[in-house]
Write a structure and sequence with these properties.
12 helices, binds flavin-adenine dinucleotide, four-stranded antiparallel β-sheet, 394 residues, 3 domains, alpha+beta, globular, Butyryl-CoA Dehydrogenase, subunit A, domain 3, Butyryl-CoA Dehydrogenase, subunit A, domain 2, Butyryl-Coa Dehydrogenase, subunit A, domain 1
Length: 394
């Protein structure tokens, strides 16, 4: 029904999509309602993801990575899994986001020590950037890292940490100088067992309730100086580069949620004898199917354009933000309309026993994290102005 493969650059990626589609359908879909209703982190699904190498896709190949086309592969896996369970797809995303500073900032020695622990030792990683007073404005973080001999001492409070309570390793952003500028923060690798690290409240959420979201506190946590990721002051830059990889994956998650809702409505229509015959008499259904299909294909175009550019090593900041913003808003509209369609047809749209109700709640987060959609619009505007100025000067 949808063109999911013709634009993919290699046959391997097309086959990869088929493989993940089967894993999602056979091993993840059935768990989705349970993790949502009982709001727990499902270790069974985590095991499935490890077994199939889906939590190391963006790692160097010798540590279980996908190799060429890894951002596209991650988007494919996230999209296919989000069609059936957005919470499970989020685990893939945060594993890639959290390990990015280690893969791209860690010394060879550090990577040799920690990447096998993660890939073979099956350690999850969390990404600790957001704080109670610093979300969109990363430069406002208060967490500090002060050098003391061969160590850094970290102090601060982090919130909204996805996988915060289930991770074994943390990529932590902290200020390494007193001034409030983008060049004054740095990433550090912190182990779960570190003295002074504690997990706070586990959040109860509207959607993606099978993901674990917690506060994490750092109270005089000492880490070896070699756990600095990148050079001192490079934290903001690493975070921005991480966004170029992560925003297409959030777009892929939104795309998957939207497709899941679309397919649920299509099944509903196909299973209703009267509806099947009389779709043309229902303008609401016609509008839903046509408008949603258009939004889905447009989201796919932006998402994979951003991912493929990233894999090619080309600048993708504008497309990454466009994709995340467009696909997130599209998923919100499609899932809202899907609830409406069921409500109009049989009055049950608002009830929990229809998957689209969960998808409607899950879609909301795609408009918020990895930079809200308001922030994505700012990024797109800035990129357009930058391009137009360099065009004027050429
Ligand atoms: C479930 C969940 C999981 C998350 N997981 C993680 C994680 O693993 N790691 C992590 O570090 N963070 C995580 N986050 C944090 C997330 O990235 C932030 O919530 C997000 O960046 C927004 O920050 P904020 O909530 O502090 O909102 P604020 O930055 O306080 O913004 C509040 C509102 O103002 C708007 N706004 C702010 N600045 C501007 C501006 N300049 N122009 C226009 N509008 C503006 C925003 O769009 C937003 O609507 C998670 C959040 C949630 C909800």
């Amino acid at each position: 029904m949808f063109d999911q493969t013709s634009f993919l650059p290699t046959k391997e990626l097309k086959d990869f999509r088929d493989r993940i589609h089967r894993i999602a359908k056979d091993q993840i879909a059935l768990q989705a309602t349970l993790v949502d209703e009982e709001e727990f982190f499902n270790r069974e699904v985590e095991s499935v993801l490890w077994e199939h190498g889906l939590l190391t896709l963006t790692f160097p190949e010798r540590y279980g990575g996908y190799g060429k086309g890894r951002t596209t592969a991650l988007c494919i896996a996230v999209e296919e899994i989000a069609k059936v369970c957005a919470s499970s797809a989020l685990l893939l995303i945060i594993q890639a986001v959290g390990s990015f500073p280690i893969i791209h900032g860690g010394s060879r020695k550090l990577k040799q020590k920690y990447l096998p622990q993660m890939s073979q030792g099956r350690k999850l990683v969390a990404y600790l950037v957001t704080e109670p007073t610093a979300g969109s404005d990363i430069a406002s973080i208060q967490t500090t890292a002060v050098r003391d001999g061969n160590e850094y001492v970290l102090n601060g409070s982090k919130c909204f940490a996805t996988s915060g309570g289930v991770a074994g390793i943390y990529s932590v952003l902290a200020k390494t100088s007193e001034e409030k500028r983008n060049g004054d923060s740095s990433f550090f690798l912190v182990e779960r067992e570190s003295s002074g690290l504690s997990i706070g409240r586990t959040e109860s959420k509207l959607g993606q309730r099978g993901s674990n979201t917690t506060e994490v506190f750092l109270d005089n946590v000492r880490v070896p100086a070699e756990n600095l990721l990148g050079r001192e002051g490079e934290g903001f830059l690493i975070a921005m580069k991480d966004f170029d990889m992560s925003r297409p994956t959030i777009a892929a998650q939104a795309l998957g949620i939207a497709e899941g809702a679309f397919e649920a409505i299509l099944e509903f229509i196909k299973n209703s004898h009267t509806l099947k015959k009389s779709v043309s008499d229902h303008p609401a259904i016609q509008a839903f199917l046509a408008d949603s299909a258009i939004l889905i294909e447009a989201s796919r175009g932006l998402t994979y354009r951003a991912a493929i550019l990233h894999d090619q090593g080309k600048s993708n900041t504008k497309f990454a933000s466009m994709a995340k913003c467009f696909a997130g808003d599209a998923a919100m509209k499609i899932t809202t309309d899907a609830v409406d369609v069921i409500q109009v047809l049989n009055g049950y749209g608002f009830l929990k026993n229809f998957q689209v109700e969960r998808m409607f709640r899950d879609a909301k987060l795609t408009q918020i994290f990895e930079g809200t959609n308001q922030i994505q619009r700012l990024v797109v505007t800035r990129q357009i102005l930058k391009e137009s100025m360099s065009f004027d000067q050429s």
